Amino acid sequence: MDHTNEESEFLQHEPCPKCGSRDNLARYSDGHAYCFGCEHRENTGGEQKIVIQKGDKNMNFIEGEIANLSARGITEETCRKWDYRVGSVAGQPVQVANYKDSSGTRIAQKIRFKNKDFHVRGDIKEAGLYGEHLWSGKGKKAIVCEGEIDALSVSQSQGNRWPVYSIPNGSAGASKAIRKSIELLNGYDEVIFCFDSDEPGIKASRECAQVLPPGKAKIAKLPLKDANDMLKSGRVKELIDCIWQAQVYRPDGIINGKDLWDIVSAEDSMASCSYPYEGVNKKTLGIRKGEIVTITAGAGIGKSQVCREIANHILNQEETIGYIALEESNKRTGLGFMGLHLNKPLHLGTVEVTDEEFKDAFDNTLNTGNIFMYDHWGSLGSDNLLSKIRYMVTACGCGYIILDHISIVVSGIEEGDERRTIDNLMTKLRGLVEEVNCGLILVSHLKRPQGNKGHEDGAQTSMAQLRGSASIGQLSDIVIGCERDQQGDSPDRTTVRVLKNRWTGETGIACSLDYDHETGRLTETPYEEDDIPFEDESTQEWTGDSTTF
């Protein structure tokens, strides 16, 4: 059901009886009402019905008298300037805003009752903006408010000397009123919208700004709800400053660099943790929240072991992690963490430990309450995965998420669809980590490299080999490749190579990791420039034959 119709027009904002908002309920001339907050509706025929009386311009107008509005902080001088009066209707005290045309002829009255009901006499549609009779319609600056009282407040704050107007029907009909008065407002170099600071007011000010030519509209941001609240609180200077410092309206996403002072001058609060390997830290300066780190390697190289080492190191920095391992059971993952504490490969099931050692390892890892895992085996839908990550961060307090690995999320999908699915998933992951401010460590597989040498033989990793979609590399902030020749002279040595580094730009080999079968740990060996862990095709000397370059 539409909340508007051709036979009714907006009259006022009221408190909503359902959600309790101060003024989200819009009342219309046929008696129906609609809440823009909770969508509560009141149909025609309810107890409150506001009637618009129409006829000739001189019909049944209330004369009233000029007086100060002490409760509003508005002086008699201001009320006289605007011809804003007090009177009575059927014994009830009312306030009267006289709407006049440019010649000063009264066209309509908007009558405000003590209970905030409004009664309109005359033709409010013909009247245009409140205050049109006061100003020439030409000049450097005009201010448009959401209501008559706010217009009086702004005018009084500026000595009643500068053009101020009010829309007649509140925020719901604001843009329509501005369109009707576009010729008038185009006579000013700039138009400042000083609407209520609540959601309907902010929305209406943006809609009104879009009606005017680009660059003409500005929007003032008030620390209190409206201009009258600023006046009553004695914050007149602050109100004027807000108006004069109003920002030029630009569509969402477009900003001026000069508006970024508060952002660039603020102390960088980006939270980060270190890696367990100094060589990687030296190149990347740590793992930051709001970023995606992708760890990639060929099959059987040890990606999962590296991830557990990183996760354990993060835990030791008093962070909470979410660990989503889609290719192993939670038991194996849990034993892996406990083994790191004991320096014994418990997850292999070949190590003997005492009951006391086992319980101590549990208490210092899994039992801390700082590790959350997802009880799942195999693939799961991308939307389901995103919801699990969101919950881990927002409800469980996880600062970092480890996802091992992305390929299995889309396993079983046709190749073309797989690429598109990963593209969509990476885009959503990118937005999610920034929205909830977590760090995501992502494991990705590699395609087999060209040539006879595979990754199991120590082939060098590259960005082009990321399996599934180029978006994995494009949307990751850091990409780290792990290389190991399983059949070579040092089958337990892994070379760690930074393939992409959006933070510092430094790439290349960071360190080597040696696996200790007795402890189940990876120990860092600093990399020296003279060390060549395997034949690196990128360093081969060009002989003139393009096939060997």
How many domains, as an integer? Answer: 3
Helix content: 25-40%
CATH class term of the largest domain: Alpha Beta
Please summarize the sheet with the most strands: 9 strands, mixed
- What is the radius of gyration? 34 Å
Strand tally: 25
Distance between the termini: 71 Å
* Coarse morphology: elongated
Mean pLDDT: 83
| Residue share in β-strands | 15-25%
What topology, given as strand order, has the largest sheet?
19-18-20-21-17-22-23-24-25
CATH topology of the largest domain: Dna Topoisomerase Vi A Subunit, Chain: A, domain 2
Please characterize this protein's 3D structure:
- It contains 16 helices and 25 strands.
- The chain is α/β, with parallel strands linked by helices.
- A nine-stranded mixed beta sheet has the order 19-18-20-21-17-22-23-24-25, sandwiched between helices.
- β10, α3 (148-157) and β11 (164-166) form a beta-alpha-beta unit.
- α11 (303-315) crosses α12 and α14 (382-394) packs parallel to α15 (415-436).
- The protein starts with 9 loop residues before the first strand and ends in a 23-residue tail after the last strand.
- The model is unreliable at 1-7, 45-58 and 532-549 (pLDDT under 50).
